[in-house]
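Continuing the series of single-chain predictions for the mutant panel. This is the parent chain; the variants come on the following pages.
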Amino acid sequence: MFTGIIEDKGIVTGIEKDEKSMKITVRSPKIVSDASLGDSIAVNGVCLTVTHLTKEEMTVDVMPETVKATTIHQLKKGDYVNLERAMAAGGRFGGHIVSGHVDGVGTIRSKKPVSNAVYYEIELPKELLEQCIPKGSITIDGTSLTIFGVSDTSITISLIPHTYSETILGMKGIGDQVNVETDMLGKYVMHHLKKLNAKEESKITLEFLTQNGF
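Parent structure:
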C-alpha cells in the first residue's frame, strides 16, 4: 500500500525487454538505502517487486499485463521515474490510499501556469471519468493529487511548485501519457452500486442516495 507522496526521482540505468515482459534497473540511493529483495516499490505509480539490489540501484520485473496496461513500456535509459516505498505501518499518511494497481492511461491535453500553480488537463477513458469527482483524489504517475475540474472527456489537476519540481510531472508536456489510478473507495462504491442497480428488485437510485444523505 502507498500514499502517493513521491519520495525520490530515480533515473533508469538499464532496460531488458523480451517479447512480453521487462526488467528495469533504476538508480536511487535514497530508495535503495533500506530496501530488501521482494519489497514493493511504486515506479510511476506501478507497484513492482525488487528482484536485485546494489548499493545505489535496484532492478524490478514487469509482467506482461503491466507492460500492456501502463506507460512502463515507454521508458528508456536515462528517463526519470517517480518512486515511493510501501507505506510503513507507523508512518504519516500524507496522501490517500494508493494500491499501485494502475487503472488506465491518460493523455495530457493542456498545461498552463496559473499564479504559483500549473494546471494540467488530462484526457481519460470514459470508464475512469465515471470514477472522478471534483475535490476527489486521483493518482497520476504515482503522485497523489486532487481533482478540481471534471468535463465530459477530461479532468483538471493543479501542481504546486514543490510537486512540480520534485516529481516527473513537471517534466511532462502536452501529448505525454501518464499512469492513472482512481480513488480506491470510489471504485468499490461504484462497483457495488452497479451490481445492485442491475437487479430488477433494487430500489437504489441517485435520488434515493441523495435523500439518505449520500
